[in-house]
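Researcher: Here's a chain I'd like modeled. Treat it as a single chain, no partners, no ligands.
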Amino acid sequence: NTRAINKKYAVDRTLCMWAVPSGIFGLIGKFKDSIPYDVWALGSDIWKIRKIPILGKFILKTIMKHAYRVFADGIQLCRDVEDLTDVPCEFLPSSRKIPPPNEKMFTADTAKIMHFLFVGRYHVNKGPDLLIQAIACLSPETKDSVRVHMFGLGPLENELRKMISTLQLDEYIDLNRPIQAQEFSNYLDSVSFLVIPSRIESIPVVFSDALQMGTPVVSMPVGDLEQLVKKFGCGIVADEVSAEALATAIEEAVKKDKTFFREGTAQAYGQFELKNAVARWL
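Model: Modeled as a single isolated chain. Structure tokens:
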């Protein structure tokens, strides 16, 4: 099928998004049809394939060695790729254009309620359980001043609902199913912070989504997030990956206004803006 597409559209170059399996198709196109290919590693494929002893590393090295150029969408991920394959790897951020907001999700609140947003898989890696536990750790005064809106899908959903009920957090946390692009844009524009409570992460796309809307983040110190957030001053980073540390970061966030981070989010977004990433690849 790859070869048929290459012939039909007279493909000049292939960009393989994910090293595995896409890189295998790029490899075939090069060997069979002499079409050069670039590889863009996005994290999950590298983390999964390197768990396969010998064979996994062999597959990655073969794909990367024959690629014209190799990219990764994380700074640390670039180093991981280079360590695994001995092939130079360049940072190329992943981002997307989300629609402009067209509706405010919350009316002005005289009680100064601050709204926080989580968008991601309900999976242990993404840490939604840590976020719920962090809200439970907040002081009563802070807890009464925050509302958390969670959107996602995944194996932890039922467990998260039970956790919210058991910890008596129904008043503070709203757990929802997946969110659509326009609603996501409206929420990002309306909330004070996006929360990224991940246990493992490279640079999630929701990070650049938040920057695009000028929304600061509260994040765990994982992947490249700690370095980026501190470098640009576009949010607050927890001291460690724990519910208690995340609660402390949220307590700090409550004391700051969204506008405090305006300059930092704008500068950081310049690193991820879609047109800049495309220009870098071209």
